[in-house]
Write a structure and sequence with these properties.
Blueprint lengths: L1 E3 L4 E4 L1 H9 L1 H9 L6 E2 H18 L5 H18 L2 E2 L8 H16 L8 E14 L2 E12 L5 E7 L5 H7 L2 H11 L7 E9 L6 E8 L1 H21 L32 H4 L5
Helix pairs in contact: 1-2, 3-4, 3-5, 4-5, 7-8
This protein binds iron/sulfur cluster.
Length: about 280
């Protein structure tokens, strides 16, 4: 959530919205303690693969070996420049997984993608609602929009996506569909596709299609109103509601663990008693 006083606008990103829905306090801490935010081995691997995909989309006919070199050199750079935590991924497999994810995109996803579109498209558009005198805008960056207005987001994931679940609840396709409709790239219904690469030794890819209509955007506005009213009324100096009932609430997966749940609950209290 970013306030722009001169224009009276408040800008939100889909990643912030996802955080708010999962744990409001995590979204607040993300805004107020940005230096604490650290990625993981999974996130820097994903960034490296994204970089290679962007290079491939902007250089048609790029061979797989060149694409893999782009990803691996970016990964080497990010290991040094980024703040990241090791998770449960075997470090000996980092480069194998990166090569495999590039291969799955190159061989199984790219042949289904129309080249010649726009990579890393930055957007901002008004949602058409005003909260406490602030005009609410969405902003963000779309991985790829093809020449026909089909929207793509690349995902590196530990397991396959569930299309039914994404169609029913995913926020990102709605925010991005609103962007391409507002900015003239496409009309509703918007065709949004996840290009998913599974973190695996054996290349495995998936294209998951999600359809977004104007009704989804109306639902987004409706759900956003109480979130924004609460966020603006509370301000960012007081704690927001905490939700620890999901598996990202842990020392490994939440950057703010040490100033939140970890300040109260140690490994001893987390350990499961003998059953
Ligand atoms: S530690 Fe848990 S409750 Fe606290 S911000 Fe992180 S996810 Fe939310």
């Amino acid at each position: 959530m970013r306030f722009h006083n001169a224009s009276g606008r408040v800008f939100i990103r889909q990643s912030w919205l996802n955080d708010v829905v999962m744990c409001p306090e995590r979204a607040r801490l993300g805004a107020t303690m940005p230096t604490m935010r650290s990625g993981s081995d999974a996130t820097i691997m994903g960034t490296a693969v994204h970089h290679a995909i962007e290079c491939a989309l902007n250089t048609p006919d790029m061979g797989l070996d060149v694409m893999q070199q782009h990803a691996l050199s970016k990964f080497t750079e990010l290991r040094v420049t980024e703040s990241w935590k090791q998770t449960n991924i075997d470090p000996d497999k980092y480069e194998v997984f990166i090569g495999s994810m590039c291969e799955s995109w190159h061989n199984d996803i790219a042949p289904n993608v129309e080249f010649g579109g726009q990579t890393e498209y930055k957007f901002a558009y008004p949602l058409g609602i005003e909260i406490a005198g602030w005009s609410v805008w969405c902003e963000g960056t779309i991985d790829y929009i093809d020449p026909k207005g089909v929207v793509y987001d690349w995902k590196t994931a530990s397991r396959a996506y569930n299309a039914r679940e994404k169609q029913a609840t995913a926020i990102q396709p709605t925010v991005y569909a609103g962007a391409v409709a507002a900015l003239g790239w496409s009309e509703f219904p918007v065709d949004f596709r996840y290009g998913v690469m599974i973190r695996n030794e054996k290349p495995k890819a998936q294209i998951v299609r999600v359809r977004r209509d104007e009704a989804h955007l109306r639902w987004l506005r409706h759900t956003l109103k109480p979130i924004m009213h609460t966020a603006i009324a509370l301000g960012e100096d007081r704690n927001w509601q905490m939700n620890d009932t999901h598996n990202l609430c842990s020392e490994r997966w939440c950057s703010y663990w040490s100033v939140c749940k970890g300040a109260f609950i140690s490994d001893i209290e987390l350990s499961v008693p003998e059953q």
